Batch of 2 targets.
Target 1
Amino acid sequence: MQTITQLTPEWRTWIRDNLARGCAVQSLVDDMVRNRFDPAFASAAVQGMLAGLAAPAAASAPRTDGYAYETPRLPAGNRIRAADREVKVALRVERPVIAVLDDVLGAEECDELVRRAAAKLRRSTIVDPATGRHEAIADRSSEGTFFEINADDFIARLDRRVSALMGLPVEHGEGLQVLHYGPGGEYKPHFDFFPPNDPGSASQMTVGGQRVSTLVMYLNAVDEGGATIFPELGLSVLPKKGSAVYFEYANGRGQLDALTLHGGAPVLRGEKWIVTKWMRQRRYGTA
Ligand code: PD2
Ligand code: ZN
């Protein structure tokens, strides 16, 4: 049975009204699943709206759920000088803040990352919302591996470039994570921030605080499928070797943008390799 991974305006209103009435998150998720919603999507959607509602609404807040858009951390312009490389901006979305970027990595850099990662891939995990522990689940059918910040000259050069692009110091970054998806591999829609009401989030945020932005860089072109999807926007970014999609979801007030719900669509043919950088509010690494 095909499950639903998109919210209509009616469902948004239904979730918002019920949360405002004090209904339990799980009861809303259960109702949505009974109405054919994907369970992980329903949970992420309700948690995300709760995050938006719980955030203090500024008097000048431009959006109904209170997220105030500030100047993006990604530099302005058609081209961005990112440390040692000039990156081209192919697309910008203002609300939520998303950009598609070309030439973030050279072809040889992509191949080198794949070569290094292939030797030490492990089944990917997600953060269990209840415990904060990393668990392997069916929603994320990929394998991955991390590279410590500044692990060596090659990784340090990429960390510096990505930090310049994302407008935050290298030390705010988690180590680069390479992911590999085979045919059928996917990552169901989710938020990259830690939902404030999940019991497991606090332990994730003790070092570095909340995640604020993501850069997903594509290490190969996928034969069919494998787009990065933003279900709230109806936007699909197709993998292109060396290109990337950037999005940010936490502002200076600590509000979180639920419109950045996103996922990795199933790989229908071929394979997909990406490398991801997540930035934190504060210093995360020891670099
Ligand atoms: O593989 C992707 O395109 C993807 C999509 C959404 C990866 C992630 N999120 C992630 O690693 O957080
Ligand atoms: Zn993600």
Note: The chain has six helices and 17 strands.
Target 2
Amino acid sequence: MSVHRAEWVGKAKRWVVKIGSALLTRDGTGLDRAALADWAGQIVRLRQQGIEIVLVSSGAMAEGMCRMGWTERPRALFEKQAAAAIGQMSLVQAYEENFQLHGLHAAQVLLTHDDLADRRRYLNARSTLRHLIKLGTIPVVNENDTVAAEEIRLGDNDTLGALVANLVEADLLVILTDQQGLYDKDPRQHDDAELISAGWANDPRYLAFAGGAGTHIGSGGMRTKVLAAQRANRSGCATLIASGQATSVLERIHAGATLGTLLMPDNAPLAARKQWIASQLQSAGQVWLDAGAAQAIRETGRSLLPVGVTRVEGEFDRGEVVSCLDSEGQLLAKGLVNYSSAQAERIKRHPSQDIEKILGYVDAPELIHRDNLVVL
Ligand code: GLU
């Protein structure tokens, strides 16, 4: 694995660096300006060596609370959103001041789940981010917490970091946290927990190792980091989870030092359109497949035909993203449907040549064409 590490990190030219709230705000006691200046300096030096960097920075809510002197995390959504609006100012101000010292600029990008779910907005965000990189700025991304309603929030910036890595086709997602990396057991509870130095992002053991949620300051734990690595994997991006407190952490990663946990991609990157489908966090509905259809999709990458669908749930229109479940209810794939839920309900279990007789017209013989279907 050590050979792989040097190979992966060495050839990574575009990085997404995510810094968590607990790190940025000294466990919620206020923005750690010295640490922030140090990371900013490292980012500038990497940039000078030709590494392109997009920063995903948490800490808006935690810093907003500090600015207002609130000691407890507010419960009401509008209070959290107000805290994020206040704290986001300090964050970008601090980044801009530090980058300016070296003649660079920060560029604030606030995204919501809907921006990434809507194909047109997604493509807009993608081209703007790419242009900001080309201009030599350091985009500083966060979730637009002030407008994101609770039920459609991305929720944690590990997920956001991975989606941004997909968006800009990054080679490496670096998640800086207050832990050394991923352990085979929770190191807070087990003295003999061992750090995993490198592995494959999709190794099924890692989610079990990661356990539940993290601290009270940020929103993610190790689990969201492993899931982020799996998402990043879809665009062929490696993920490195490392301690943000380690000296010169980013520059040492660049130099090939063995630190943290490197989770490497094991798949060829999906085509951009399929990545977008796979990155959808919510589906408009779901269809249940019989064993034959599930096998055809899983093993031979076929299209989904109406005849293989046993149940249709939710309300969706043609062109929306729908989840495909196997007969056990396990998520198997996601895809863009050719028929609405009402139409799918009528044509399910029927061979495609009957579609015209049933609906009075035929749009496509498939419910989901294989070009619009991503096996997960
Ligand atoms: N967007 C949140 C903030 O800046 C952080 C989410 C997270 O902790 O992952 O406060």
Note: The radius of gyration is 22 Å.
